[in-house]
Amino acid sequence: MELYFLRHGIAEDMAPDGTDAARRLTIEGRTKLEEARAGLRRLKVAPEALLTSPLVRAHQTAEIVGRQLGLAPLVAQALASGSDTPQLLALLAEHAQVQRVMVVGHEPDFSSMIYDLTGARIELKKGALACVELDLPAAQGRLLWLVPPRGLR
């Protein structure tokens, strides 16, 4: 399985209701994600499934990217902030019939998951994208590439 990890774009520091879950993308965050869509084309990123954290900023990110990819994002509680590798693997097992999956979520969760799966120590900046080649049954993978947000734009 090809597994793409996309960290959400730049979000507001505080949501109007004061909760972390309701934080929205800023205008700058939206603009940069729109510009990053060209990078997805250049990299030939073509997931068959787009799974997103239910938090507003991640869902908004998935909607923007989903328009480029022609995919509607599916909300997955297993990708909410604070998720871990066993939750990710259980979610991916539900989508084992597809070869390419993109997940949209949060740090430090994604860096920890990538480390658990590949042994690679990375940090995903807001709007960065990593690709892992994953042997799902074995829960072992290899980091194929990591593109910082500027590289996608």
Structure description:
- The chain has 153 residues and is α/β, with parallel strands linked by helices.
- The protein has one domain: Phosphoglycerate mutase-like (Rossmann fold).
- The protein contains five helices and six strands.
- A six-stranded mixed beta sheet has the order 3-2-4-1-5-6, with helices on both faces.
- Helix 1 (27-43) packs parallel to helix 2.
- The longest helix has 17 residues, at 27-43.
- The radius of gyration is 14 Å and the shape is globular.
Q: What's the short version?
A:
This protein is of the alpha/beta class and 153 residues long. The chain is built from 5 helices and 6 strands, in the order E-H-E-H-E-H-E-H-E-E-H. It has a 6-stranded mixed sheet, with helices on both faces.
Summing up helix and strand content along with how strands pair, one would put the structural category as alpha/beta
Unreliable spans: none
Give the distance, in angstroms, between the N- and C-terminal Cα atoms: 26 Å
Superfamily at the CATH H level?
Answer: Phosphoglycerate mutase-like
Number of helices: 5
